[in-house]
Structure formats: structure tokens, C-alpha cells
């Protein structure tokens, strides 16, 4: 009988010796690897924090005592120990739990969290509530894995010192962020590791926090001893724990970055189960940028700790001086780019839609007000399904309403490159480009790009269909379905989420009684509402198809598209229904 | 002849001895005080940094060498020395220059900046550009006055160490933020001051930065020596300068916080020229919160370094344990509140519209996804005129499109308190309240508040006027003007910027051919566009009146209201024009 079979709740850990718990750690590593090799998931961060999580649950009493995982992608072991192990043991239940902490799943989880640097602030709030209620539970934040470079972590550490409550801050130092750890602070962590916690300048002590160091963060006895020793300290304390990311899986140890998150793979060599081949937009973008560099354009590719998703590794190797990864520090990625653009460089910043919202003030205040020509390439702006923490349909409401910022939505590779070239040629202000997420499409006949010119693909009457970005193929399909009903609709590629084309819009009047907008984003704050307001005082009716303003939890993308009338059948039906009403 | 009369550009400083420059500092203090006593402005920060600015311009060669002021509200001396002194010497020119650095004014300014913690990132960008172009100019960032608590400053310091370029980072340590300096870092600065820069834990060194200390930051010789010594160092260096906020003006020295920014006042005693009296919304809000505390509701009032604007001083004195000022750390203010709400407390966060955008990710990811019942009271959400860095009309596009977040817009004191009470009674999710900026209005007949119920103030036909928040009085006036034209319009107080009332909206159909929305916010992403989309597929026309999506530079509020058709005459005319078209 395995040890894991005996563990159904954290209290069960107390029935075992430390040696057995060390064995449990290996069993958990095995089930972690077995599942993620099938489903994909965060590999390295979870392999490194198995012992830490076991020891915490052995010493503390969850959920009375509370643990808050930063980012929470390293909470797999926590889930296994708190009644959710079936999701790792039984393939039929592999999708029962999310990849992040989730209060809907368990009383041992307190926040749905998937963005970094949040744990210390959230845990500080729980500590304040505890002291208000005199419940004396112990609060722990677990931060690490690159989260320390985010400004929110600093703001929270700074305030934790002032609030001065019992708060255990575990710095899980696995020596890596998602990509290499960037920034001066990682040098300080390295010095602290080298000196067994005794380095002369200590960031945490400088912030007014108490501090202790654990040299072997994968040794359960050391961890139990450390937790026992600090458990009842009445003030905030940083417990700096040196762990090994990817521990127990050779490929993950050899390439920590590639194994931060991984697609399904073969055990034991780690080769991917499916290899994606063929054209993709990121390689096309980088080839275009390369050409601009060859022509003397001072392009710098920039990124915040996730180069892999944008294929930036080759760029970084070819142009080490033209590549900047600021670490998990989205605010700095934009403010630094603002300064670079002011100095005459052409920074091109690669961001995921969900993370760029962390730089909202910088986009508006630093870039927008100063009209600085930073180019941004946005990944994942789509109706995504899956975890709400990484929901992709909120980017238009975020970016498209910032003054001076142009947010473009290309539909094909020709369009994408034309827009990128235009964005690099102009110096009037920031331009973001929503890179389509629906595979590479081509339209060699696309006209040159001009920022406020829609592309009219087909001239019809009665109905005009506007398929924004990745919704162009849907609009094309709906065009065919309407044609089968005897309606010869107009088809338009708007090309921009937020700069309208008054001339084209005015020309549609008279020949069209209904304009239909289709967008992969929330309707509130989006493209369709801008069109609806434009036609508000006219005789043109507008039907806006897009996502509802809400966080989705377990829905699939397909179910969402259907619900939002963004499939060929549902969209066509919605249009025909609207036509009947007007 | 005064020294100041001889200074028309920075190079003129070189014609003077250090003793004369010290005299110049006193002359500049005099003109600073004379102007701000008439116009209002940032008093303390500018009085403290006079010598620092003189010494920098004496040693460096602006604009070839570049200085970037954080927040830039301490740039008055810089402006006086760089050709703009008339704006302090001649009352007719008092309004010629803005209160912040402004590239439109001078080649010595590089960014329009009014939010904190931006300088190091921006200056790092300039340094990268310099090195790309091999121009060898010296780049300096001046940070301090509370800006060090913002996470962006940390992200930028962290990256500056890694980028490792010539970059002088002046930490202007005047021992104060806007309010008292909060957070562990200020303890470290105090230790560094106490030990003449030799404290055993040094935050800047821990971040991997070189460091030097200047004990008397108001002594020009010391400052010149320090700048000369570090000028050509080829890596990033923090020059920690101990200055005296409010120096040279007794009232400002005695109450540094009150004199950070001040309304017009009488010299020399500092008494205000105009005393505002009478009812105001902030006192009403705090009285209501006080009552809730008396009834056992665990309310915590929270703030990010600007308690004065919300009248929070009395609250803090009465309830020190129920008051939290996180310092200039807007992200932490929301994440901490999220944790507190999860723990069962009822945090009420007071924010200015322009600064809350710094916590966009926290509003969406921490509060929204987790549906945590944090209440936020928003100041300054209005068409503001003046500096674009503090523009007030962007808050709806920011807040109202975040899922799960309700953004209310009361119109009267009864409405405001009813909405606040409702927000505190519910636990479904975050609620922000846009506190009206148009003086205290009263309507004792306002019905109880329910979140998706509009308040129909007058039932008419043909046209329905929706006056959102502070636009209700305008809508009432327009109602009268339309009545004089024989049109009996319907008058509606929508009460919420982002939760529609489908029942009421559907009832308007049939009896109304035009719905007019009036809002003090940008149209893009705002209330009117939501209404326009709602009625898009119907026979109801919609006219949206509000602000254009753009940053305004020198326009007055009155001019903007007129341009945006938000005055009684312009609104009425726009409505009558629209009516003719449909």
C-alpha cells in the first residue's frame, strides 16, 4: 500500500514518520508527472514544492490555518493532500480540478488566483481579518518562482512590515522565474543562498521583515523544523527556502524554463506527444522584424518572462542586445518601452492579453498621454474557456478605450504584416495588434493598410456583416448562409477595434438596414458598442455579437461561442431573428 | 539685481559662485511661495528640492544630459531654470506652464508625467536609447516624496541593476510621502539617514545597485561635489539625498502633509484665502460608515497616501485600528482589501479615479474573479480640464467593463447613502461608487436603491433623457428647455454606469423614439454605448452625449462641456438636431 493511499486529508499526514513523508513526496512526484504528461500543465514549479507543501500541512492545521499560494500554479500537491487526489490518480477525473487554487473546489483554497505577486497582499488581508476576529489562525503566503519581481509583491512586503501581524511569508526560491530570473533581486537571493542566509545586504530585512533561511527545501525534516520554529512568531517573517525546480524529472532539471509549463509529453524522455508544425504568426512577425532590423530600424523585442509563447528564443540568440526580458514586471515592460521610444528606439513588446492588464496605468499615462510609438503584439485575445484567471476576452475593453492607443485586429498574415509595418512606420502613438488566435489565414488581395479604413470584402445590400479579427471566417460563413436564404449581405473586415471609418460607415446607410458586428471579446467596452453608438441616431439597426461581461469558470470555448451566437448556425439565426423585428 | 534675473538658461548658473547659487535658492523659494500662494500648487516638494535642482543643472548639461522627475510635481525649480521663470514672476503668465514636466513647453522636459514611480523606468529607457546611439549623454532620474512605495519603482530599480547602464538615480528623501511615509522601506531610509548611509541592510544595494549618501541635501556645495563625483560612473547608482520638505516656509515645515499641495493661501501665516464650508459628500459618507461601525459592521477605511482629499483624518483619529493607509501603492490597496473581505471584514477603499487605474489587474483578477465585497468610493470621476495626467473622465471605461464589478453613479446625497448602504449590505461582489463632483444635491423622494433599477423621475413621451450621476441636473435643465419647445420628455436617473435595467428600457419602447444619454466620462467604453447597443436592433434611436476618447491638454472644463454638448444649450440643440434626422 502506498503512503498516498492513506492520505485523504491533511491530518492524515500526522500518522506518518518523516521517512514515510519523504516517500510520499516521491509518490506524489510520480502521480504529478503521470497526469501532466497526459494533460499538460505546470511541471517544474510543482515538482519543486512537493516537500514544502507536505511539511506545511504536517505542521499547520488547514483550513483553520490558511495557506495562500502565489500564482497558485504550484498548488498541485496542496490539492492532492486536501481531498482532491482523484484528479491525479484517475484519468476519468483528470479535469475535475483546475490548475489553480479554487474556493469552489475546497475549503482549503481561499482565492481563485492565476496572476503573480498577489499572495502577500491577500494573506495580509486574511491576517488583518483574523486579528479583528481574534481567531488566532496562522496565515502563510507562499511566493516564489519569479513572482518576486512583480511590483505588487514589493508593495505588499513593504506594507506587511508596517501592519506587523503574524504572517509567514515563504519565499520558495527555486532560482528560476518562468524564464531565467531577471533583475537585481535575484542576485540578492543568490547571495543569500551562498551565505546560508547571512549576506550583508538582505532585501527582506531592508524592508523591515524578520528573516530565516532553509538551505535544503526538499528535505522534509528541515522544513518541519523550520515551520515549527517560526509558527508562533507574532510578526511577519520571511522563510527563505531553497528548492529545486523540476526535481525528480531529468528533462525538467536540464531545461527548467521549457518545463515550467509543458504540453503533454512522453515519460520518461519528455518528448512532446504532439509536435506543432507549419506556419504560425509569431515566426512571421519575427521574420518581419528581422527585416526591419536589417534595414536599420532600431527595434528591440521586449517581453515579461514568457518568451517561449512568442518564439522569442531564436530572436534572443540572434540579437541578444535587441532583446529585453524584464521578468514578471509588466508595468516596467511598458514604462521602460516608453522611455526607449522617447529616446528614438522602436520597442516591440510581446504580451499575453491577460497579463498586459497589469500595466493599464502605464499604457494610459506613460504611453497614451505621451503619444509614444511603442508597438505591442497581443497574444490570447479570444474567447478562451477554461480558467477565469487567464480569460482572453477582456483585452478590448482594456486597451481599446485608452486615448491615443490604436488597437488593431488583423485577419490574415498579409494583413498582420501590413499592420505591423504601418505601426513601425508611424511615430504618432502606441499601437497594439491583436494577433489572431484562429490559425494562419491568407488573403493576398488585402489592400494596403490605413488606420481608419475598413476593408470591404463584398458589396451587398440589406445586411452588413463586420467580422473583427479572428471572427472574419465566421462572418464569411454567415455570408454564405444568408446567401442561401436569398440575402446578399455586405462583408467587412473592420481591421481596427477602436478607430472607426466614418466614411465607410456613412456609405452603408441607405443600402443597409442592419449592421452586425462579430467580435471575440466582451461586448461591454468593445467594438460593437462603438458601432452601435455611431449608428444610434440613424435608421441603421445594429446587432452586436460577442461575449457577455462575466468571468467563466468551467465552460468550454465551444459552449461559449454557441451561447454568444458566434457559431455559423447561432449567428445566422440571431441575425434572421433581428431582421424579423425591424 | 537678483541672481534670478541673470538666469535664463541652465548654462547661466556657471557664471555664479556657490554662495550666489545658495542665494539664488532663497530667491527661487520666494517666487515659488509667491506664486503658489496665489494659484495653489505643490508647496512642500518644491521648497525641498530647490538646491538639488540648481546643483544638477550646474553640473550637468541639459537637455543633452537628461533629468526625469518622478511624478514631476517637484519640477518648478527646473522650469524656472530652463527658460520658464516668467510663469512664476509675472502674474499674467502664472498659467502659462503646467504643474508637471511637459515636452510641449520645453526641450528640457521629456515626459508629461503626473503619476508616481515612473522615473526610473523611463530614464532606463532613455539610457538604452543613448547607448544604442552612442551619444554619451548622462541620464538622471529623481525619485522620492513617497514614490518609492509604488511597485513600479521597485520593478524599475530591479531591472536597472540588470540593464547595467550609466544611470543616476537620485532618491530625494524628504522623509515624507504625500501623507506620512508608510511601509518598511521608509524605516530603511531612516536607518540610512541615521548611519550616514552605512546601515547594515541597504535596500538599494540589496537590489544590486551602487549607492552613495548626501547628508545635507539643501547644501549646494555638497550636492555639486556629489554630482561631480558620480557623473561619469558607468553603471546605475543611487544617490540618496536627505532634503527638507517645505524648507523655508514655517507652516509647511510644521505640517508637511497639509502643505504637500495647497490651495491659495496668505503669506506668511499660510492661512487659506478661501475656506470651503457647508455640506460635502465625504463627511456624509464617513458619518454613514461611522454609524455602521456602531452597529458592529467591521468596516475598515482604506486609502493610498491621499487621506486629506477624502476627509479621512478625523476617521483615522477616531478609529486608528480601522484606518489603513498603504502609501502610494494602489495595487496593494486593492489586493489587501480583497484578502480582508475574504476574511469577513468590510473594507471601504477611497480612491481618486485617475490613480485607481494603477490597480486595474487587481480590480479584475483579485476582486472581480473572486467576487469579493470590497466597496470603493471614487473621487474625481468627471470631465476635468487641466492636466491630462489627472484627467477624470476615463474611470468608466476602466471600471465599468470589469466583470462582476458594479459601478454606481448616485446623483444626490440620499441616493449616495442609499447606494453605500446597499453596497455594504450585499456580499456578492465589489461595488464602486462614483461620488458626484458637482456639489451636494438633495432629493428626499428618491426611492430605495436596487442595483438594476433605474429611477424614472418624470414620465413623458417621444424623448427619454438619461442623466447619469452628476449629469442629472443637466438632464433636468434640458427637460425644461424641451418642454418650452412643446416636448414632454421622460427624465431618468440611471443610478448605475454598467448594470442595465432591461424592464425599464423595454418599457420605454413604443412611447419614445429617441433616448439621450448624458455622462461625464468618455463615450468609448461608457454608459451610453451600452444603451446604444441595447437598443441597436430596435426602433429606438439613441444619442450618446459624453467626452471624446482623447487626452486634453489646455482646455478648460467649461470649454470641454460645451464641445461635448453637455451644456444646457448645446445638449438641447444636439437633441433637436437628432430629432430632425430620425
Automatic annotation (TrEMBL), chains A, B:
Residues 279-442 form the Transketolase-like pyrimidine-binding domain. One of its GO terms (cellular component) is cytosol. Belongs to the transketolase family. DXPS subfamily. Its cofactor is thiamine diphosphate; Mg(2+). Keywords: Isoprene biosynthesis, Magnesium, Metal-binding, Thiamine biosynthesis, Thiamine pyrophosphate, Transferase. The keyword S-adenosyl-L-methionine does not apply. It comes from Lacticaseibacillus manihotivorans DSM 13343 = JCM 12514. One of its GO terms (molecular function) is 1-deoxy-D-xylulose-5-phosphate synthase activity. GO terms for biological process: isopentenyl diphosphate biosynthetic process, methylerythritol 4-phosphate pathway; terpenoid biosynthetic process; thiamine biosynthetic process. CDD domains: TPP_DXS, TPP_PYR_DXS_TK_like. Pathway: Metabolic intermediate biosynthesis; 1-deoxy-D-xylulose 5-phosphate biosynthesis; 1-deoxy-D-xylulose 5-phosphate from D-glyceraldehyde 3-phosphate and pyruvate: step 1/1. SUPFAM superfamilies: Thiamin diphosphate-binding fold (THDP-binding) (SSF52518), TK C-terminal domain-like (SSF52922). Gene3D superfamilies: 3.40.50.920, 3.40.50.970. This is 1-deoxy-D-xylulose-5-phosphate synthase. InterPro entries: Dxylulose-5-P_synthase, THDP-binding, Transketo_C/PFOR_II, Transketolase-like_Pyr-bd, Transketolase_C, Transketolase_CS. Signal peptide: none annotated. Homodimer. Coiled coil: none annotated. It comes from the Bacteria. Pfam families: DXP_synthase_N, Transket_pyr, Transketolase_C. Its EC number is 2.2.1.7. It is an enzyme of class 2 (transferase).
Amino acid at each position: 500500500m502506498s503512503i498516498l493511499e492513506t492520505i485523504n486529508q491533511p491530518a492524515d499526514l500526522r500518522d506518518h514518520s518523516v521517512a514515510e513523508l519523504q516517500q510520499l513526496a516521491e509518490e506524489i512526484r510520480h502521480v504529478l508527472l503521470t497526469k501532466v504528461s497526459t494533460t499538460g500543465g505546470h511541471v517544474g514549479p510543482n515538482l519543486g514544492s512537493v516537500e514544502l507543501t507536505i511539511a506545511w500541512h504536517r505542521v499547520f492545521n488547514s483550513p483553520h490555518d490558511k495557506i495562500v499560494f502565489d500564482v497558485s500554479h504550484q498548488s498541485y500537491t496542496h490539492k492532492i493532500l486536501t481531498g482532491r487526489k482523484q484528479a491525479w490518480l484517475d484519468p476519468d477525473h483528470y479535469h475535475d480540478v483546475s490548475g489553480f487554487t479554487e474556493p469552489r473546489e475546497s475549503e482549503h483554497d481561499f482565492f481563485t488566483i492565476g496572476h503573480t505577486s498577489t499572495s502577500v497582499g491577500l494573506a495580509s488581508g486574511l491576517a488583518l481579518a483574523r486579528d479583528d476576529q481574534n481567531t488566532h489562525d496562522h496565515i502563510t503566503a507562499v511566493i516564489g518562482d519569479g513572482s518576486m519581481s512583480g511590483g505588487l509583491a514589493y508593495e505588499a512586503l513593504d506594507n506587511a512590515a508596517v501592519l506587523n501581524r503574524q504572517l509567514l511569508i515563504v519565499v520558495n526560491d527555486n532560482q528560476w522565474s518562468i524564464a531565467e530570473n531577471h533583475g537585481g533581486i535575484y542576485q540578492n537571493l543568490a547571495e543569500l543562498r551562498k551565505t546560508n542566509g547571512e549576506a550583508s545586504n538582505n532585501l527582506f530585512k531592508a524592508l523591515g521583515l524578520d528573516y530565516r533561511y532553509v538551505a535544503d527545501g526538499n528535505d522534509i525534516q528541515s522544513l518541519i523544523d523550520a515551520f515549527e520554529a517560526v509558527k508562533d512568531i507574532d510578526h511577519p517573517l520571511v522563510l527563505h527556502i531553497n528548492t529545486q525546480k523540476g526535481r525528480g524529472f531529468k528533462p525538467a532539471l536540464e531545461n527548467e524554463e521549457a518545463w515550467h509549463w509543458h504540453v503533454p509529453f512522453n515519460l520518461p524522455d519528455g518528448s512532446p506527444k504532439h509536435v506543432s508544425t507549419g506556419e504560425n504568426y509569431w515566426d512571421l512577425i519575427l521574420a518581419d522584424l528581422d527585416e526591419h532590423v536589417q534595414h536599420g530600424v532600431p527595434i528591440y523585442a521586449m517581453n515579461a518572462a514568457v518568451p517561449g509563447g512568442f518564439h522569442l528564443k531564436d530572436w534572443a540568440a540572434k540579437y541578444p542586445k535587441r532583446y529585453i526580458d524584464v521578468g514578471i514586471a509588466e508595468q516596467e515592460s511598458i514604462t521602460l518601452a516608453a522611455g526607449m521610444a522617447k529616446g528614438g528606439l522602436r520597442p516591440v513588446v510581446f504580451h499575453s492579453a491577460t497579463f498586459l492588464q497589469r500595466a493599464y496605468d502605464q499604457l494610459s499615462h506613460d504611453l497614451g498621454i505621451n503619444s509614444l510609438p511603442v508597438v505591442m503584439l497581443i497574444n490570447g485575445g479570444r474567447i478562451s474557456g477554461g480558467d477565469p484567471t487567464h480569460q482572453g476576452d477582456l483585452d478590448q475593453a482594456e486597451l481599446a478605450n485608452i486615448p491615443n492607443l490604436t488597437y488593431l485586429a488583423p485577419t490574415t498574415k498579409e494583413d498582420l504584416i501590413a499592420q505591423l509595418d504601418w505601426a513601425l512606420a508611424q511615430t504618432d502613438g502606441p499601437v497594439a495588434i491583436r494577433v489572431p488566435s484562429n490559425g494562419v489565414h491568407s488573403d493576398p488581395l488585402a489592400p494596403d493598410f490605413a488606420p481608419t479604413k475598413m476593408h470591404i470584402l463584398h458589396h451587398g445590400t440589406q445586411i452588413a456583416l463586420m467580422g473583427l479579427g479572428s471572427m472574419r471566417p465566421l462572418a464569411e460563413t454567415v455570408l454564405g448562409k444568408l446567401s442561401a436564404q436569398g440575402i446578399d449581405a455586405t462583408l467587412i473586415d473592420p481591421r481596427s477595434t477602436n478607430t472607426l471609418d466614418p466614411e465607410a460607415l456613412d456609405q452603408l446607410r441607405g443600402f443597409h438596414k442592419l449592421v452586425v458586428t462579430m467580435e471575440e471579446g466582451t461586448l461591454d467596452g468593445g467594438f460593437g458598442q462603438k458601432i452601435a453608438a455611431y449608428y444610434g441616431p440613424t435608421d441603421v439597426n445594429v446587432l452586436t455579437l460577442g461575449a457577455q461581461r462575466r468571468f467563466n469558470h468551467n465552460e468550454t470555448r465551444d459552449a461559449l461561442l454557441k451561447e454568444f451566437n458566434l457559431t455559423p448556425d447561432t449567428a445566422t439565426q440571431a441575425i434572421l431573428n433581428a431582421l424579423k423585428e425591424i
